[in-house]
Amino acid sequence: MSDEAPPRLEVEPHLALLRAALAEDGAQGDLTVQAVVPAGTRATADLVARAPGVVAGLPMAEPCFRMLDPAARVEEHVQDGDRVAGGERLLTVTGDARAILSAERTVLNLLRRLSGIATLTQAYVEALMATGARLYDTRKTTPGWRVLEKHAVRCGGGHNHRLGLDDALMVKENHLYAAFGTTGPQALVEAMGRCRAQSPGVPLYVEVETHEELVAVAALRPDVVMLDGFDLGEVRAAVKHVRSLPPPRPLLEATGGMDLHTVAAYAAAGVQRISVGAITHSAPALDISLRIRAR
Asked: Does the annotation mark 140 as catalytic?
């Protein structure tokens, strides 16, 4: 696990997302609850994990219920970042029965998605534990959900890459094709020069696809060199080369083509960082349900 506890999720910036999600679901006009559940009925319900995993997004539940019932009371039994067992209660909500049922799917969609990311992230972090390498996410996130999904990565013990295009420089293959019509060491060196001239002091990441590109880039000491799609032998050669340089040396990050079965071997080759897009774009949802208590 990461030695950095995930900070408490700030809910205020995401209230518009909650309102939009409830509107998308037609929660204010729920025909079924209006037909079946008498107005004014009170209920207590539990959110329960039906499979083991890591919780993320729990603070989003209370404002979601309260958008439909301002008097709803929510008690959290666990916190974001906690590992829970199957059958464990996550929170209890008491309030208007119609409101609880109409908010149910929105709350579950949020928590299942974010907890799934946290759970998959923790599996990768555990696979890397003996190597000392850190796991990082990418920008392969759901549009509008990036802050939430990167929070979920932190809950699982992972670390965040840049949040957006405006907080770090990252030179990749398509930048070179757009600027120079080609790739290769010379194009990378030119692109790095332009980046440093425009944004001195801003973190600079450079993605390389060959050992020749690595050699050219590493000599110029970017903050991080990203080894895109390198096989294990190529990663070992890259590590050996960078270790031969006098300090300060760039950090090395393996990226692309790794999964839970192979990620530890890449980390053991000597890189300090591993980035995996799958922890956000392909995480299976954690099975969570809402159960109304019998009266």
From this structure: yes
- CATH code of the domain covering residue 287: 3.90.1170.20
Residues spanned by the domain of 103 = 12-125+283-292
Over its C-alpha atoms, the chain yields an Rg (Å, rounded) of 23
236 and 269, same structural domain? Answer: yes
Same domain, 119 and 134: no
The single residue of 83, 146, 162, 172 carrying the catalytic annotation is 172
Q: Which pTM does this prediction carry?
A: 0.96
- Catalytic choice (83, 139, 140, 196): 140
From 247, 248, 249, 269, select the one nearest 258 (Cα to Cα).
Answer: 269
Write the pLDDT tens digit of every residue in 162-213.
999 999 999 999 999 999 999 999 999 999 999 999 999 999 999 999 999 9
Count of structural domains within the chain: 2
Question: Does the annotation count 172 as an active-site position?
Answer: yes
